[in-house]
Specification:
CATH topology: Rossmann fold
CATH superfamily: P-loop containing nucleotide triphosphate hydrolases
Distance between the termini: 25 Å
CATH architecture: 3-Layer(aba) Sandwich
Shape: globular
Radius of gyration: 17 Å
Number of helices: 7
Bound molecules: adenosine-5'-triphosphate, magnesium ion
Order of helices and strands: EEEHEEHEHHHEHEHEE
CATH class: Alpha Beta
Strand content: 25-35%
Length: about 230
């Protein structure tokens, strides 16, 4: 077993639609991410970035090949087992935040810990600590609609990292933000990578991200190449 690898795709293909309308979103992709590594996934709109991240994040299932997370082959796992694997190991920052609008920042961040069944006082301390680390402690009782895009993105990151996942997947985390706010978000992700040795895999075509993450994986029409 390669135990320095946190996530691996082996000959993974993903199709959308059926029959003649079928399109190939990922075409026999091989990729591995080492523990503690930061990698940026670059490619034009529609090239398959979100699809690839969703498979790594066990949010969607491949049609062919294998997805291996921290040595565990996910293909044979039930939905419940996948949910628990996700909860344990993976933090996902969605392209469109996916915050729950009727919950406050605090409540959005708290969700993964409630699913883990952790005790009240631990949950409270950890949620406050993470909200503080993303600079939103004083906004914790605000609802998503009362926050700016950058603040919502930080709530989304807080929710992704609150359970201490070893793999953080972020889908265009700086898109739709001004360059300063985008830079702050990137600082946050790279801090987690450098200081806490989390693997960070970011889909982006933002030049700021490309300047700061040295390892680049390119994707075009569902096929990848590594610089
Ligand atoms: N649920 C779906 N049903 C059908 N086709 C889909 C679906 N999701 C994605 N696709 C198609 O698969 C291809 C890859 O989409 P994907 O969202 O992975 O691209 P992307 O690189 O993330 O693009 P963007 O930069 O615009 O976010 C696109 O051609 C898209 O239209
Ligand atoms: Mg996308």
């Amino acid at each position: 077993m390669k135990n320095n690898i946190i996530a691996e795709l082996v000959e993974v293909s993903k199709y959308y639609g059926t029959g003649t309308g079928r399109m190939v979103a990922l075409d026999c992709v091989d990729l591995s991410l080492a523990k503690g590594e930061a990698v940026v996934l670059v490619g034009p709109s529609g090239s398959g970035k979100s699809t690839l991240l969703h498979l790594l994040g066990c949010i969607d299932k491949q049609d062919k090949g294998r997805v291996i997370i921290d040595g565990v082959d996910t293909s044979a796992k039930s939905l419940e087992e996948l949910a628990s694997l996700r909860l344990d190991k993976i933090g996902f920052v969605f392209q469109s935040f996916n915050l729950i609008p009727v919950l406050t920042a605090y409540e959005n961040v708290e969700i993964p810990l409630l699913f883990k069944g952790l005790g009240n006082s631990f949950v409270k301390d950890r949620v406050n600590e993470v909200l503080d680390s993303v600079g939103l402690y004083d906004r914790k009782h605000h609802y998503p609609r009362q926050m700016s895009g950058g603040q919502q993105q930080r709530v989304a990151i807080a929710r992704a990292i609150v359970g201490n996942p070893s793999l953080i997947l972020a889908d265009e985390p700086t898109a739709n933000l001004d360059s300063r706010t985008g830079g702050d978000i990137l600082d946050l992700l790279l801090h987690l990578n450098k200081n806490e040795e989390r693997s960070v895999f970011v889909a982006s075509h933002d030049s700021v991200v490309l300047e700061r993450i040295k390892k680049v994986v390119r994707i075009l029409d569902g096929k990848i190449s590594i610089d």
